Amino acid sequence: MGSEVFTIKSTTVAAGDYDSQEMPLHFSAGYISIRFLDGDDSIVTPTAGTVVFQGSEYGDAWGEIATLNANFIGPNVEYTRPAFAGPMKYIRATLADISSNAEQFSVSIARYS
Prior knowledge:
- This protein is an all-beta fold and about 110 residues long.
- It has no helices and nine strands.
- It has strands spanning about 5-10, 15-20, 30-35, 45, 50-55, 65-70, 85, 90-95, 105-110.
- The strands form two sheets. Strands 1, 3, 4, 7 and 9 form a five-stranded antiparallel sheet that branches.
- Strand 5 (about 50-55) and strand 6 (about 65-70) form a beta hairpin.
- The model has no long low-confidence stretch (mean pLDDT about 95).
């Protein structure tokens, strides 16, 4: 079984779309993890906002994978990592209304075949 981890990183949590790098289509499944950080690189739990994850085989048409409330993502908070199956060349994280205690974020996309 092959695997690889891809990331989306940003030093801002401004509302908008953040796309992964291109991923090989031979992977058949994946899990997504996200964490928010403050200016000191400490993990924080936003007090508001949402994150929508979408996937695309070609980067032109997107399908929703999961929508998460940002205030359920952080230290000592348990959330179900979004999972998906099938070929995906890109993953998109769309942030909306993330609270100001979070200044940056990092998404890990673990792919498996």
